[in-house]
Description:
Layout: E1 4-13, H1 17-29, E2 34-38, H2 44-49, H3 51-69, H4 85-109, E3 113-123, E4 126-131, E5 136-146, E6 150-152, H5 167-170, E7 179-183, H6 187-199, E8 202-206, H7 218-230, E9 234-236, E10 240-246, E11 253-259, E12 262-268, E13 270-273, E14 277-279, H8 286-289, E15 312-314, H9 325-340, E16 357-359, E17 365-369, H10 372-379, E18 384-391, E19 407-414, E20 419-426, H11 430-442, H12 447-452
Parallel strand pairs: 1-2, 1-5, 2-3, 5-15, 7-8, 7-13, 8-9
Antiparallel strand pairs: 3-4, 4-5, 6-14, 10-11, 11-12, 16-17, 17-20, 18-19, 19-20
Helix pairs in contact: 1-4, 1-9, 3-6
Amino acid sequence: xxxxxxxxxxxxxxxxxxxxxxxxxxxxxxxxxxxAVESHRxxxxxxxxxxxxxxxxxNAAAIAxxxxxxxxxxxxxxxxxxxxxxxxxxxxxxxxxxLNGIYEKNLHxxxxxxxxxxxxxxxxxxxxxxxxxxxxAIIRAQKILLATGGHPNIPSNIxxxxxxxxxxxxxxxxxxxxxxxxxxxGYIAVEMAGMLRHLGSETHLFIRHDTFLRNFDPMxxxxxxxxxxxxxxxxxxxxSQSKVEKTDRDGWLKMHYRDSAGEGSIDIDCLLWAIGRNxxxxxxxxxxxxxxxxxxxxxxxxxxxxxNVDNIYSLGDVSGKVxxxxxxxxxxxxxxxxxxxxxxxxxxxxxxxxxxSVVFAHPEVGTIGLTEPQARAEYGDDKVKVYKTSFTxxxxxxxxxxxxxxxxxxxxxxxxxxxxxxLHILGAGSSEMLQGFGVALKMGxxxxxxxxxxxxxxxxxxxxxxxx
Length: 468
């Protein structure tokens, strides 16, 4: 059958958070004839194998943590059966599937034409879409957005590495692993290690250096690494992996490694690689349109999401600016405004500075702005003043010393007015706490502004407005 041909104002390749936000803004608010193409499930990484199912799993792990701590408050909770991971997964999958349907309904409501298929560029204003039934469609568009996201990596230089899974595979597990090895030191590895440990898996975390979350402030790195060891997670420092092989035991693997203690091996029923992500560009046809990429393969886009090719734009993980779902959504809406919203939006773009982010570890970590080393490098030691505190939250007052978790906060300030350029928090409730403080930093708050706010007592957050 000959390919069908469609014309539109705006073609969006990629049905993740950023692409959908831009498509809906362009069509629903500004009336642009818009087509969105997605080859997997709508919602992208976040909805299907990222933020959403991760947070649901984190909630389950937090409940398990609370059940363990309940005895300190006089509750005697007896579990009549172990955690039913299979039933939990079934409900989590159903929730995600419902969200997929909501996303498709929203596209329909905003008059975005949705094609389920795989798209690749043919030229600067034309793309071919291989639809799920095998037929093809040729799309001619005045403007094209590339928002295809990324995918997790598996190492290519370790024999047997393919026996492991990635974060995508984590959400396909039908049963809770007995003993799991996670390789990686970023937020994905750290979040999943915490969840698996509290849900009942023996958890080993293999990192290349002495601490993890190494892009975060040193206070965060040191505190969370120490806390994970207190919780019973085995940290393998300065580690490398040499080989993975199947064992005689069904479903089990043996991973050979070296760490700070020397060479070793471990038998595991789950190996999870969390060593980074690559942009989803392999068959996108960038060469046919002349779209430039950086050394990592990411599409090069400026602060207005422009690529080097007129009328081709890119945002989200595929362009690698700040790989967070809300960033892609915000950038997508701003781009939709700029392209189709008229003269008043001609300069619309996302401000990529002071973006708050959270790691759903145990406990949670929140950060916005510069780390202390970054601030000292940018402004000089004499211009930087740091306020910090570490304490035990009141929640732990009823618990034995060995069961008390840490709370640590830091403000990084610069100049005579002590403008707050970095805020770093670790402890229970950090994820909800950070949003409001994020607004303060975006407004240019100073230490004096923090001091002028009356504390809410008794809370952990009050420590941030009473720092000395």
